[in-house]
Design brief:
Elements lengths: L6 E3 L29 H16 L9 E3 L12 H13 L3 E5 L2 E5 L3 E2 L4 E5 L3 E5 L9 E6 L2 E6 L3 E4 L2 E7 L2 E3 L14 H13 L19 E4 L2 E6 L2 E3 L6 E4 L2 E6 L2 E4 L13 E6 L2 E4 L4 E3 L4 H7 L3 E13 L3 E5 L7 E21 L7 E22 L13 E22 L6 E14 L3 E4 L1 E11 L2 E2 L3
Parallel strand pairs: 2-3, 3-6, 4-7, 5-10, 6-11, 7-12, 10-13, 11-14, 12-15, 13-16, 14-17, 15-18, 17-19, 18-20, 19-22, 20-22, 21-23, 22-24, 23-24, 24-25, 25-26, 26-27, 26-28, 27-29
Antiparallel strand pairs: 1-28, 8-9, 29-30
Length: about 475
């Protein structure tokens, strides 16, 4: 057993960090050199293979319904025509809703239906209005881990089976000059909602909307089964970009997310099961992918973990947050999380496991391998002090992590692994990790069974 208390290790070599812009075409990162077979590791990744093997994208009837047949005209608001086409498609038993090339103004939210594939042809753009230009009904949602009735996400599906967004088109949320302007005004509402979650206020009484400033997500699938997002580009999100909640069999592939303001996370699976995220490109100013499962008491009340998530073959860039993150809203727990073959151009934290002393919850069975990092502030970061805590009586549990075959060119710090005495970070294996340049020493405190195997920083081998 290893219990590190404010142990600082590693040399402090300063070097300028080159920051290259993320490329436009997603490529599959080359795998790092293979190491000797490890039966335990092979068994772990067999679980990932089994998750992917049982997942199937939804299948839709061949019928096609064009928004042009329901009144859509370029230059005029098209959201009513798009919604009418979705409703007609669903009433006919399902099929593809076709959005042809052109600029289509969305002055209202789109609500998807079961057995409907919303297909955006190449050069089709759905441009959503700014707050004063768009009508959003109040719907049941989850906002930063707490259930609430709030403004509808711009694209929303609730209790749907077999639902998709596909094609090579673009969804433009106009968030930077739109809903992001609410951010300085949202603190009162955010505090009120968190108080309601802590107090156990009935969800029906948590009603926000006109006169309030909780920003809506861009795309949310709420309690849905058999979900596919394949191909579109999402730009300038109002808040979190792709947010599946309480959903299962979710596939997000060949997607590009570009959004450069706070809280525009790329993809946040939230209390979901069986999730595959692959061949995607994230260029955002918050977490690229963040695994969630509810906040504090409200997360415990719901009690739904996120588990069985596979992330692979993605490109990532974020200058102020994590490339792969779990948390901070993780009170329902997260397990069986697998990430491999990632190319991280820049991140504040390349691999970020974050919570605070109010969260409770357990993050376990996390496996990461074959990662290339060009530049980061911290390569691997475990924290139990993410923002402040309200009481500090429910520390999170981190256990059973393996991170291996990571090649980092430049970082501020290779390792920051900090638990608390009452809840040390447990059973972490970091293996075959090479950091070319690190400017600061490592910080390791309150760990148990931390193993470093073949970890080399600034040319020196680290020992736990």
């Amino acid at each position: 057993m290893v219990d590190r208390r404010a142990f600082v290790a590693g040399s402090c070599v300063f070097a300028a960090a080159g920051r290259a812009a993320i490329g436009h075409a997603a490529t599959v990162p080359a795998a790092l050199p293979a190491t000797a077979a490890d039966p335990a590791t092979d068994a772990d990744w067999a679980i990932a293979d089994a998750i992917v093997a049982r997942m199937r994208p939804p299948v839709f009837p061949a019928a096609i319904f064009s928004i042009l047949d329901h009144g859509a005209r370029e230059g005029a608001p098209a959201h009513l025509a798009v919604q009418a086409t979705i409703d007609a498609c669903a009433a006919a038993g399902g099929g593809r809703v076709l959005v042809p090339a052109g600029l289509w103004r969305m002055n209202g939210a789109i609500h998807l239906r079961s057995n409907v594939d919303l297909h955006l042809e190449r050069d089709a753009v759905l441009r959503f209005g700014k707050p004063e230009e768009i009508v959003l009904p109040i719907v049941l949602t989850r906002w930063e881990g707490t259930e609430v009735y709030n403004y509808s996400p711009l694209i929303y599906a609730r209790d749907c089976t077999n639902v998709a967004i596909t094609g090579q088109g673009v969804c433009d949320g106009q968030g930077g000059q739109g809903f992001f302007q609410w951010r300085p005004r949202q603190d009162r509402d955010k505090t009120a909602l968190r108080d309601m979650g802590e107090a156990g206020t009935p969800v029906a009484d948590r009603r926000f909307g006109p006169g309030h400033f909780l920003r809506p997500p861009f795309v949310q699938f709420f309690r849905c089964t058999n979900v596919l997002i394949d191909g579109p580009k999402f730009v300038d999100s109002p808040f979190w970009t792709i947010h599946p909640v309480y959903s299962s069999n979710v596939i997000v592939r060949n997607v590009t997310v570009i959004s450069h303001h706070l809280n525009s996370d790329g993809c946040d699976p939230d209390s979901c099961q069986d999730v595959l995220i692959e061949h995607c490109r994230f260029d955002v100013s918050d977490d690229c992918i963040a695994i969630k499962s509810g906040r504090d008491q409200d997360g415990w009340r719901v009690g739904l973990p996120t588990r069985n998530v596979v992330i692979r073959d993605c490109q990532m860039s974020t200058h102020i947050a994590g490339a792969i993150a779990i948390g901070s809203e993780m009170s329902g727990g997260a397990s069986n999380i697998f990430a491999e073959r990632l190319e991280i151009h820049h991140a504040k934290q390349a691999l970020y496991f974050k919570a605070n002393l109010d969260r409770g919850g357990t993050i376990a069975q996390v496996r990461v391998r074959d990662v290339k990092v060009r530049d980061s502030d911290t390569l691997i970061d475990f924290t139990t002090a993410y923002h402040h805590s309200r009481g500090g009586n429910a520390p999170p549990t981190y256990k059973q992590f393996t991170v291996e075959r990571v090649d980092c060119r430049n970082t501020g710090r290779a390792l920051r692994i900090v638990g608390v005495e009452a809840a040390p970070v447990q059973d972490v294996l970091i293996r075959n990790v090479t950091v070319g340049k690190a400017r600061q020493g490592n910080v390791i405190a309150h760990t148990r069974d931390l193993r470093l195997d073949g970890v080399r920083v600034n040319g020196r081998v680290l020992v736990a």
